Amino acid sequence: MHSLNRRDFLKLSTLAVSGAALAACAAPAAPAPGAAGEQAAEEQALVTYLIRTDIGAAMLEWNDAAAAEFTELRPDIKVEMVGVPWGDYNAKLLAMFAAGTPPEISANYAAGFPTFYANNAIAALDDFVAASDVDLSIIEQAALDAVTREGKLWAMPLAHMPVIVFYNKSMLDEAGVAAPPTDANDTSWTTEEMFETAVAMSHDVADPTAAAWGMVFGPGQLGAYCWGWGIDPFNNQGGPELTEAYQTGKITEAFYNRPEMAEYFQWLVDLTFTHGVAPRPSDTDAITQTVGWPLMSGRVGMFVDGAWQFTNFVTVQPEWEWGAAPLPYGPAGITKPPLFNDSWMLSAGARYPEAGFDFLKYLALENGAKLYAEMTGFFPANKQNYNIFFDSMLSIPNIALSREGLEQVFTTSFALGYPTPGKTLDGYPELNTAFNQTTAPIWNNETPVEEGLVALQTQFETIIATKA
Amino acid sequence: MATIGAEKSRQSGPWDRVRKRGLFAPSLRTEEAIWFYIFLGPWLLAFLIFTLMPMAASFALGFTRYNAIQPPEWVGLQNYALLYRDPVFWKSMRVTFVYTGIFVPVQLAISLALAMLLNLRVPGMRAIRTIYYLPAILPAVVTGLVWVWLFNPDFGLFNFLLYKIAGIQGPNWLGSERWVMPAVIISGLWGMGAGVIIFLAALQGISHELYEAAELDGAGLWNQFLNVTVPMLSPVILYNLLIGMIGALQTFERIYVMTRGGPNYASYFYNLYLYDNAFGYFKLGLASAQAWILFLVIMLMTFIALRTSGRWVYYSGGR
Amino acid sequence: MTTTTMGIRLGRRRRDQLRKVLGFLLLIPGILWVLMPTAWMFSAAFSSLAQVLRFPPELWPDPWVWTNFYEGFTYLPFGRYFVNSLQISVIRVIGQVIAASMAGYAFARLRAPGRNLLFAVVLSTMMLPYTVIMIPQFVLFKELGWINTYKPLTIPFFGGGAFFIFLFRQFFRTIPEDIFEAARLDGSTYFGIYWRILMPLSLPILATSAILIFQNSWQDLIGPLIYLNSNDLYTIPLGLATFRSSFGSSPWNLIMAVSIGAAIPPVLLFFFGQRYLLSGIVVMEK
After folding, report:
1. What topology is assigned to A6-158+341-382 in CATH?
2. Does residue A12 belong to the interface with chain C, where contact is any CB pair within 8 Å?
3. pTM score, whole prediction
4. Which of B59, B90, B100 is nearest to B247 (CA)?
5. Fold of A162-339+395-467
6. Of A63, A367, C128, C254, which has fewest CB within 10 angstroms of its CB?
């Protein structure tokens, strides 16, 4: 009586069978390309290309165009582009590494090149370079230096960009102020001068519906814009050249609680809360959420940011005139724009390294680089494509710069600039989080500068101690 | 080979059992146990194949330094020692616990109240319930943005209303160390969470007769609630309490989109720090250690909650 | 219960009506509270991008734009993503609900050695943050060859999931033991009890689970993100995340339109599922 009667047995087996059928149904997907991992060398090589998808329409288009063209040129190589949003880039990357199937090519976002290098995630390129007989001299030397460690090349730079000042020329004209110069050697363009210009343009800052702010300056990566004040956060003698940490990648001391740093931070805070020429963090957040980059809202006069922001103008052409200028001279009579580079890397342990390198070559040194310079708005590290970039920028409506002016902004900034901490320091993401978290109350005027800097100093000392 | 409609078994003697079920039939007890394992089969299988190994691996990884790129390196208790000395670790613990302590009871009460209101049989209620359900289904990329806007000190609706209704100048919610936690709590109380749906379903199981009987006994609305609704719902209240607690202690997604843990770690939840360690800084060993600490804490709290539940949870089906 | 009954009944009806009206009124502010954040969402879905990007924001679409839905769904292959999401979610719901109810039944009404220990293990599986089992699980699935398929997103859930096993267990325990005993005495098998008695009684919880599991699966981002590589397998949340740009502006009008479109299946499921959700079968008390 308690054993299974026929009907129930039938039902149970139906359940089991449907369960199994469901399981089979759950695999209708396309066969995983190369996931089994054992592809014969004669078969098509598969280059997995892990890209960031939230970097703007221009980049997405370039990626598509480059992959398409490369597939035509090299039918023996299949490029599989896997797109992930930035916030989850590392999660995907690490998962692929852990499973032994890292993507052949990835770009140094999120963690940054030094972290990838320190974690042995990438392969040195020198052997590949030698074997393929490529001419690296067409790449800007500073960009190559930035990805050279212990005499070896670890990544292929695609973009090389300084921090500059973007401005809304129409707003400047309306306020009757002159546009800044394009020569970074022009010492008349100082932070003081910038301030005066901003004052002329700012109005109604208390009324968010009508506010216009003259400038956005910001602290820079880990406070790197302080270089204009003659100091650097990681040595107490002077500018970044004297900081050993940028050479070794490891910080051993921090000097955030120095008076000059306090002076710099105070200047920044005053811009917003005393003089009302810069927006508050909440204002910036509000604008960023919708418009994106605040300059595009037409309410900001000048914006200090990396030259990659040119990409905005590729996608959204504003109705007002716009231009760019180098970073102004700080009170110490110094201008030292931080230099960024975007480099693509070949993963260590990739299954198709030769094919990967070929793709890398295409992206950085061949036609891919040309497309890059033309389509993305990111300044190319490949010197041969400078003109393509300038042509592309000058074709955007309402640019208020001449060709010479635009060129000058870049060349003079490069000459005076210095690599930004994010590209030289190992463990930068952690330092960045600590910096942003601890300084947030300062920028919100909730904590006085001195107090905030003491907290920042303590925070960094703790991190240094744990890494020791 | 049971026959339907057979006479009821009259347990007469031991041979009856043998006669009816065969010489080698298992005992009742054993049969029940066998069926227990049959019904549990799918879970057991899935657990053994998909969950056990990763859980065990994460435990082991807590004693290593591991960046997913190279094989793990044994470091013993170093991760745990590092965490012990790390002020951000303790801060994130505190943030998480304070949040949980406030949020869970509030959420429970509101969920129950809302479920009872939504239980009213009023025309148009189906649409109203669906409206309340809508926020739950919106993607995080949308809701996070909406909250950032709502809490904006100048444009946000909150400060706008505060000013219009009470004449107060609202704070800089997400930018203030003091006010970011209230903002996080408020944003968690939006719309119909799973708790409300579950309460709604459970409310259906309370027989009307109980209410009628209570009313005849002279019980007012509040008394009915206290003496009929709550006891009958208590198994589900326990469920929502535990699930709510476990969920609150692991809060992550909303924070990631809204505040990113700031300002100054004021909303740096435990799971966010864990995530940063794992995928921000490539410290998967450390993150695993963190995860297991949280695991033990949750286990302890759940154990306490379950132990004390006997006193107030009433299973109308009998134990 | 004579003439006084009439008095009580009349009074009760009026009282009931009053209660309903009051309760209803209480819900109104709640509706505003709930809808208010979505107002911008709907506004953006029907506005042009230029208007959405205006600062400060203007809510009333001017002009009304109807093409965002079409544009959004074709900008990226959202039609494809929609079908993918649907496929995964439906399969998962069916498998997970069956498994969870079976396990819930086992824990609620079947005695066996090790039951309490196993239940503790079940609960413990929801106490470990997903972040740290993510990588080991990924490696496991890679060994199984399941990367870039839907298998990791469906098959593991055929175990039931701790949340829902726990839920079913709590619910089954509210059903009087007598029913089980009576059924056993009637000659029913354990499976018979499960299938013919428990399941029909559990319509509300089945509906609840279906709604919640569908919602979880529909909104899952991290799963598809790490397991899927091919674009034509992507799900809606993954597609939406791609849309959102941290450089330049995101096309909010399209994002909102797609989000609204994507919300339709779960909302429909809820709307029609209410009937089952609220169909309590009253279990007679002694």
Report:
1. D-Maltodextrin-Binding Protein; domain 2 (3.40.190)
2. yes
3. 0.88
4. B100
5. D-Maltodextrin-Binding Protein; domain 2 (3.40.190)
6. A367
